[in-house]
Amino acid sequence: MPPPGHDGDARVPLRARLHLAFLTTRGWALFSCGVAALLLAWFLGRRELVNISIFLLATPLLSAAVVGLGRSRLHVRRGFTPDPVVVGSPTEVTLTLHHATPLPAGTVLDEQLPPDFGNSPTFASDDPDDPGRPGSTAGSAGGDGSATIYRYRLRPTHRGVYPVGPLHARLTDPFGLAVRPIAVDRPSPLTVVPPVLNLPVTGVLGSTGTHGTATAHHQATPENDDVMTREYRDGDSLRRVHWPATARHQTLMVRQEEFQRTPRATVVVDTRPGPYQGSYIGFDAPEEIPNFLGPAGSTTGCFDWIITAVVSMGAHLAGQGYELEVLDETGGPLADNAAPAPGAAAGRYAGPDAAVDLQLTLAPVSLKTEATPGSPEAGLPAGAGFGTGHGPLLLFTGDLDADQAAAWVHRVGTHRNVVAFVVASRPAGTVAATRIFRSSGWTALPVDPGTAVADAWLELAAQERRTGTRARP
Fold this sequence. Notes:
Layout: H1 14-17, H2 25-44, H3 47-69, E1 74-81, E2 85-86, E3 91-99, E4 108-111, E5 122-124, E6 137-141, E7 147-154, E8 160-164, E9 167-172, E10 179-183, E11 188-193, E12 214-216, H4 225-228, E13 229-231, H5 243-249, E14 253-255, E15 259-261, E16 264-269, E17 287-289, E18 297-299, H6 301-319, E19 323-328, E20 348-349, H7 354-362, E21 393-397, H8 402-412, E22 418-423, H9 431-439, E23 443-447, H10 453-467
Parallel strand pairs: 2-11, 16-19, 16-21, 21-22, 22-23
Antiparallel strand pairs: 1-3, 3-7, 4-5, 4-9, 6-7, 8-11, 9-10, 12-15, 13-14, 17-18, 19-20
Helix pairs in contact: 2-3, 6-7, 8-9
């Protein structure tokens, strides 16, 4: 936004800058005529002009007093369809305006929108067929006309939690002399989530079957027959009878139920601003991420690619039965700087609702304002704070030099299957980190923010086939 005194202030009417907006143009014209009549009465000595001037001066002031002191009985309910909305998809905003009596003629309603959404829609109560915004409609609800419905459409182009509103009403008197702007309601949050992209089933990170469960069997050795068996119970299948244990105990013994465990995957996102600054042009240019529940953050094209990839790959893995733990570079939940989704707890996502939970949680996630004490540059012990140490780990980071990449290797270790996505707008920005990661036994993919997420997923599968790497869930 331009600073005060810049060209942006030239668009503000002089009447508003002088706080004279409590009267309309007609009201100020009438007041000016009263001043002129009073001056003429003084110069000409005509008493009858004094009475006319008093009338002309008092009428707009009394109108302003009546409008200003009157009680507003307007109530607004705002809804979004759909809510949340995916980036690039339209959503319809419905404003249901309740009022005890019909709105006065000339009442103007202004819906306040963030700058990203363009011009704010304007509705006129006396002309419902011309709401003032393309694609908007208006109508009445109820036979008594006590509610008016206005609709308009938005198409968000960036993720975040946007404040939509409040609705401002400019109330006027029947003569159109005075005006009173009021905020009818409070802003409503509109959550714009990153898309969940469909990824091909490739068996990447290890195939876990159609249900995504890995079965852990006890070894069938004579030493642990007693551990894996129990006495026969009514209803047990004879196919589960363990004959060596039956002969030893002289009673019918059956095998214990097989133990099922859910495979786990850890996703780590580097949220430090340094790896994504680059040249600050194109994909590296910072953009604001609105957050209705807190201060706005910033992002870049490279970091946005990472957020979309985390949501898409996380939803894909959750559909394969994985339980995901999504962390930042400190080892804490990535959702710490955002409001977690209702179904997500401590950065963990699993089940059929994992995709929606990831979208809601990561919608307002932004880059941190400064390097965090827990970043790899701080030289923390290897493997500290990154999940349980079981299952694959997906690391998403940006432009790193050799020392920063080596710090990541030291931090995470080489005892598990690690896949690193190095995202940079310039090919030279991925060379050092990719070389260090691959020399440490990791799978590293240099990625341009213009690369399709599905193509990166297929490339990961191709690299695993070439190297023979498989996850150890």
